[in-house]
Amino acid sequence: MPTLQDIANIAQCSKATVSLALSNHPRIAESTKARIRKVAIELGYLPAEPDNDVASKPAASRRSIGVLYIGEDAQKSIGQGFFRETLLSIIQEASRSNCNVVMIEVNASNGQITEDELCEKIYNSGVEGAVVICFRKELHGFNTLIDQQFPLVFVGDHTIADRDVKLHTVMTNNHDGGREATEYLLGLGHSRIALVTSPTSTERINGYFSAMRTAGHNVSDKHMMIVSPPYEKNDGRLRMLGEQEFTAIFATSSLAGLMVLQHLRFLGKQIPDDISMIVFDDSESFQIESPPITVMKQDLESLGTYAVKMLLDVVGEVLPLPGRVAISGRLIERASCRSLHAPLKVNR
Fold this sequence. Notes:
alpha/beta, 434 Repressor (Amino-terminal Domain), Rossmann fold, 3 domains, six-stranded parallel β-sheet, 13 helices, 14 strands, globular, LacI/GalR-like_sensor, transcription cis-regulatory region binding, DNA-binding
């Protein structure tokens, strides 16, 4: 069940404002009330009303679809870029398709949940199908739902634990994105490119190695540093950034990118004069770094939009067999990568 905080995050206001708006308090502007009520209806917090412009048809004719979030803290995640932007596009596409959206949260600190818990939450929600968002690759607890052919669409490349089954999936084309990010650095004249990654970014890693080998460069696991939080100054996993003469870094996630930035500051290295850097996935902090960081940005709006379209096709039995949509990322060039073809500018 969505909360006031969920509505506040989407409507970009305080929880107190949401509470006052939904109670029709005179202190809140009518335009703000309308915006908040629209979000509340789209999230399924309030029922659709015939006289509300959100409900162009009677409430009984509107389908309900779920957004199943599996993780440690949905309240925290909903304010972060990936979840926030994807959820917003899901809500917008659902509204265009005359559907209500119901938030379904499953707390799973270790990634494992029981079949009974998951089925109970899904069926008690009353939804006809659900878009699944989880930041772990391997998922538990879905066997019963899959056996019962409950309509599910997964955002991201996931597998079901102890089972080889094809899933309806909408995901970023991670291999091509990893290759394009690496080719961008190669095009600037870099060949000594370090790869900083989490162990789960398999396709982005493969894209890096594909680009390097196609360009004729011998690379091995020695070029790759596998990291996970928390970051520490004497982190041995990033030791090679100070020991080897890399001219550029490709970080395969925003978290890996943030760890690299911290370590480069510790080493006293300047971007891009001492080393260039590109990150797969964007973050608000990358935009305000000095210099701003070049990124391969996921198309989160399309992820959410296509997830809803696919789910409605599955619900309507238009797409009975598992489908897979891979969405290209977009390279956003900022100021963190230096061309080795041009002389280094020296500040005087």
